[in-house]
Amino acid sequence: xxxxxxxxxxxxxxxxxxxxxxxxxxxxxxxxxxxxxxxxxxxxxxxxxxxxxxxxxxxxxxxxxxxxxxxxxxxxxxxxxxxxxxxxxxxxxxxxxxxxxxxxxxxxxxxxxxxxxxxxxxxxxxxxxxxxxxxxxxxxxxxxxxxxxxxxxxxxxxxxxxxxxxxxxxxxxxxxxxxxxxxxxxxxxxxxxxxxxxxxxxxxxxxxxxxxxxxxxxxxxxxxxxxxxxxxxxxxxxxxxxxxxxxxxxxxxxxxxxxxxxxxxxxxxxxxxxxxxxxxxxxxxxxxxxxxxxxxxxxxxxxxxxxxxxxxxxxxxxxxxxxxxxxxxxxxxxxxxxxxxxxxxxxxxxxxxxxxxxxxxxxxxxxxxxxxxxxxxxxxxxxxxxxxxxxxxxxxxxxxxxxxxxxxxxxxxxxxxxxxxxxxxxxxxxxxxxxxxxxxxxxxxxxxxxxxxxxx
Amino acid sequence: xxxxxxxxxxxxxxxxxxxxxxxxxxxxxxxxxxxxxxxxxxxxxxxxxxxxxxxxxxxxxxxxxxxxxxxxxxxxxxxxxxxxxxxxxxxxxxxxxxxxxxxxxxxxxxxxxxxxxxxxxxxxxxxxxxxxxxxxxxxxxxxxxxxxxxxxxxxxxxxxxxxxxxxxxxxxxxxxxxxxxxxxxxxxxxxxxxxxxxxxxxxxxxxxxxxxxxxxxxxxxxxxxxxxxxxxxxxxxxxxxxxxxxxxxxxxxxxxxxxxxxxxxxxxxxxxxxxxxxxxxxxxxxxxxxxxxxxxxxxxxxxxxxxxxxxxxxxxxxxxxxxxxxxxxxxxxxxxxxxxxxxxxxxxxxxxxxxxxxxxxxxxxxxxxxxxxxxxxxxxxxxxxxxxxxxxxxxxxxxxxxxxxxxxxxxxxxxxxxxxxxxxxxxxxxxxxxxxxxxxxxxxxxxxxxxxxxxx
Amino acid sequence: xxxxxxxxxxxxxxxxxxxxxxxxxxxxxxxxxxxxxxxxxxxxxxxxxxxxxxxxxxxxxxxxxxxxxxxxxxxxxxxxxxxxxxxxxxxxxxxxxxxxxxxxxxxxxxxxxxxxxxxxxxxxxxxxxxxxxxxxxxxxxxxxxxxxxxxxxxxxxxxxxxxxxxxxxxxxxxxxxxxxxxxxxxxxxxxxxxxxxxxxxxxxxxxxxxxxxxxxxxxxxxxxxxxxxxxxxxxxxxxxxxxxxxxxxxxxxxxxxxxxxxxxxxxxxxxxxxxxxxxxxxxxxxxxxxxxxxxxxxxxxxxxxxxxxxxxxxxxxxxxxxxxxxxxxxxxxxxxxxxxxxxxxxxxxxxxxxxxxxxxxxxxxxxxxxxxxxxxxxxxxxxxxxxxxxxxxxxxxxxxxxxxxxxxxxxxxxxxxxxxxxxxxxxxxxxxxxxxxxxxxxxxxxxxxxxxxxxx
Lengths: 456, 456, 456
Prior knowledge:
The structure is a homotrimer.
Chain A: H1 7-19, H2 21-24, H3 27-38, H4 44-74, E1 77-79, E2 85-88, E3 95-110, E4 119-133, E5 137-144, E6 151-159, E7 166-173, H5 178-181, H6 194-199, E8 203-212, E9 216-224, E10 238-250, E11 254-266, E12 280-284, E13 296-300, E14 303-317, E15 320-333, E16 337-350, E17 358-359, E18 364-365, E19 381-392, E20 400-402, E21 406-417, E22 422-434, E23 442-455
Antiparallel strand pairs in A: 1-2, 2-3, 3-4, 3-23, 4-5, 5-6, 6-7, 7-8, 8-9, 9-10, 10-11, 11-14, 12-13, 13-20, 14-15, 15-16, 16-19, 17-18, 19-21, 21-22, 22-23
Helix pairs in contact in A: 3-4
């Protein structure tokens, strides 16, 4: 096409090369051939054939480039980093992840009062699908199949279009304290504290609004009951709450976390045939899950509502960390106002130097990444930990009927993080339960329990 | 290798370039170098070195091209289009998809007779795996985990080698009407009509044969009971049926759908200790799923078989659409022949101009694709709809014992399709149930219900 | 940059081309331009412009090469070979697989004594996730959802760092015989033998150590109960066992397999209110799974422990194969020692010439790969098979209370392997059960059963 090969023309072609780099390929050859032809170095006939050959070459390269473009466009990126199966569209507007977790427990228990014995348990066996849709939308569906029993965990639609606000609709964790907000994959002991089990809200089906900055989070939620709890013959219970966290320090190895949460649960119970009007039961296991008994146990009649208030704190200083939470619950009944409370305190130390991984944007702890990985020639991370929990379900009044009234639990923990996703845990638990006025007023439960854990 | 550089030789190379485009690369350079050498423009020594350099360049490009070929061959294509995670082999003979759906409902109900109250419900929580094997085979495994309860949905093997016929073996929808054939992801109201729930066959475990053309479908099936319904101590119930649909119009915005279905259910029940001989119960909720009560309710004793007959029609005219179905059931018992029937009619209108998406090759409606998508700067699609259902379970005879006998239900619906896969729905339902001869012969149930929905 | 174009310089560039093949691209052109400029064939001005154009071309090619490198690095390989969805990281240190199986059964049964009748059943409906983490670690989570019932199958963490030893912790098959060790996807008949169901250990939650060579395997395991069996109010039962297999012949079409297994089960039962002290029940269906009845049935009281001993053998000779297993069980009770045993023998023949696929490294049979595949123009593989099982649960003593005491079962099987993963099976089963001392001392059960099967 180009008849003249002035320097200006070549310069123009050169500039164009940036705009269409692939098509520009072999332009240099074509230009050279033109120059050589114009100068008479090659004949017009040879020019024509060589130019055609050059164009053919150029097309071959273009073909490869187009194939690469097509692969990039048509094929979402697949990542197996750390063993997590993640997919992402070329433009990052869409993503998906398929995963789960396995926790298999073995416990050796000494508890004469309740006849609980040694046993094994699939503590968690979860599968999830989650994803991002058109940038602003997200979803997660997570189910637990442990011990042949189906339990819905996360099941929600989220909208992140009003940054930094996230809206979630469906079943998810709402307005909980620090231990509850931290995934079971990342908690320091095999079980969260009994305090947490007695007081935390957990997952509920409702709407939450969450926001935050680099070192604070705020979440508020309005919810009905969780999945599988619907009282279809009457109005379902509902509740609302909020949580605020602030981290004056949130470095990789130095963290100070402070948090507060409050929650009101409204009970809509109507009298049941043969049952007690609006009875609510608050009970929990002694930081040992393989046993049947939930010895810390109170029943309250005629309950209208319950207010839960929680305080959180945690400090990370290199391999050391300390964490504590306090909860109180005030229960309004038709006859009395009942109050009880509890707290726990624990410390942990990484023998191998790692730090607990605080996520200031989430107000919770995340994955511990061992500096040395088993499978890459390393030895993993080793952590020792000690927790003390204090439970007090005692109160007076006609409405309350407490079985296991007070107690404390001491847990010694040893964690081996073989890889970032594989952890083995050993916990020795010494729990005390007071049953005042019964023939065995004091029960001691001791358990040595082991866990193998992986998430993927 | 080439000693001569005649035009013919170059022409030959040029032709060869098409056959092996990648290897041909830099042939132009090699040819030019030969010409220049032959003409004495460059020395033989320089020719040799330059030619080797050119070949080396050529190999580098070839290497890239081969890598691309290997990627294409070894890696199945992964697509996240619309958020759906799909895999396809290079030759399209194999494919796979992992997905699911979440529907979370919130209902506010006024029904004094039955004490049903406000509540939330995970209406659907499904996960599926499906795929194509060696072109002609397919499978789908879909389970619902909603409300911590496991329900098998699709679970079948399909063969598509006898085109246009598809054979399916296993649990799947057989010979149903229009509303039942339309996925719950795409139905216009939160619930299918009560009529559909009372009369449609649903999913059964059996063998179906389906065929069709561009505007018609035919399906016939022979089935035993659905999954989880096996009467292991006696012969299992079985049935057979067929459905034919025809769409005189099946354009994108103008559709006329007509359909007819017939089904016979054979009951193999034998007397049960303490039970009634061959009792069958037909009952349904009033287009509100969160409530326990299924007020439209009849029990028929000594049932041998039941014949169901259905008529379907739908019209789409741009943003407008109208849909209606009529069903009748004739039940043969040892003493009487009992008959009842019902119908529904509804209209819908897209305020934002979209049309309901009729799939003539499936005889059902598919996904509504909003022209404006939330997350891409848009506002989604908005649809208003109105449905009227008429239920009549009344008949005379010794065999029949009807509780909620007659009734009608009016539903006002508002749908917001934020994206093609995310939809929010609001339905206001006014249901009437007649209980003749009881102290409350007439019950009115009113419900305002909301749904968040996503499929992936 | 290069001012001189001596042959040595060009030779040096040429050598460098191997080290950085992509960057070297168009070096030949640049060198040629230099030669032409130095010889005065082109002007210095044209040289500069042409050289820049050539560099620009070069960068375009480099860009493509880098994109390919990035694709290779960032995207795990996705394979759909045979319909199996597998992912593998670039360095093979990580992998993942998502899959499952569907088996849908239809049975026509004649058994007057037990009233079992015709029926359908989703025999297996499984989904699994498995993967490899940092080379040495692996996991598998497999659940069965058949008939709307959740059953945990594999759920374990494995470590393969001590080659050739594999450690597994969690729920998995431990120390079983040949038929039990062979996946239900690959067994010859629709059901494993009644002998296997009565005696094999199956999956348990514990720790196993497995090793082996090219033609032998050894596995030993210590376990508590399987998932979902925890006796939370007492110590859980536990057991231990081992299996050794050896294949003097293990060619593709000629195999001789020998195996032996031993297992001790310790029962930790304590007296139950209203129950019998330590009663254990051993019972099984007659190689027909759709029926409720498990007629071969013995109850033993006061059981302390049970020892199971198994012998295995199999021969493959081209399309022919023969397989047999013998099991005995000795049960220690507080009053008696009870013994019973059983065996089966079967032969199979591939009409289409394939061989059963013995896996010497696993000590079990694997996938049959038809030489001709339906969907690729082929007809699949056809196999006929015949099995005889002999059951003897008879023993004397105060502790034992046997219902269906003795019996034998003959099964005729026809298998059509349409593809490597899709199989259709027909079994005709004739089972005999002796109930000595009852009014119907001899029961004959006949069943014709069909299965459609796919795994993915």
